[in-house]
Amino acid sequence: MSTPHDDIAACAGLVQRGDPDRFMAAMAAKPAARDVLFPLYAFNLEVARAPWLTQEPMIAEMRLQWWRDALEEIGQSGAERGEVVRRHEVVTPLASFLNKSAAKLLDGLIVARRWDIHKDPFEDAAHFAEYIDATSGNLMWVAARCLGEADEGVVRDFAYAVGIANWLRAIPDLEERKRIPLVDGRPEAVALLASGALQRLQAARKARAKISKPAGQALLSGWQGEAILKQASTDPDRVAQGMLGQSEFQKKTSLMRKALTGRW
Fold first, then answer.
1. Closest by alpha carbon to 94, among 37, 148, 136, 159?
2. How confident is the model at residue 81 (pLDDT cuts 50, 70, 90)?
3. In the structure, what pLDDT confidence band is assigned to residue 87 with cuts at 50, 70 and 90?
4. In the 8-state DSSP scheme, what is residue 121?
């Protein structure tokens, strides 16, 4: 029979293989925080890749619905009353700390991910912003609030910026998959999008005092955001060329610095 330690190890393995940057960020956090971060990041990974595992929209919808059903079980029982939910290496550890409100937020993340199943473009800039907030924002906010005291607006500002940075890095792959990732893909529009996200990141950092140190560990996952957004805002052609990001040495040293100082 699997133990809680086995489940956390399984979640860590999933994240290490499928989302190495978040794995590095979780490993930079305190051991106790990893018990929250690894299940959340494993959940996010499984949901994010579900729409891409099949060419059949109906099957993709069913995969996402499975996770929605699991979260509903957690919200109705799980952590708040200690009742047992379905046995699963990711769902079981999630149920140990998610409450009904957090489960609902993660459900919103899944609903937003339905966009990934189809090839329709975003309706407008507001729809795109809602998608980023539901995917990046909900995940980081749940992680932060499960770890400590934090201001939601500050977390969401930071998460939006990180979400845009991650999205810009994914654009070449999305376009290869015949998706339309941006409402306006002109270089000048991309630069403006990155600049706006960078402003929200800087605003969040100015309000750093509103995020407790324990909760701040959830924001370590965005440690590359500033560098990527600066690259995209000054040279937007790098987005289409897939040239955003830092070297492995830069990534590791910058993450280490932020983990040691707590200044995400």
1. 37
2. low
3. confident
4. P
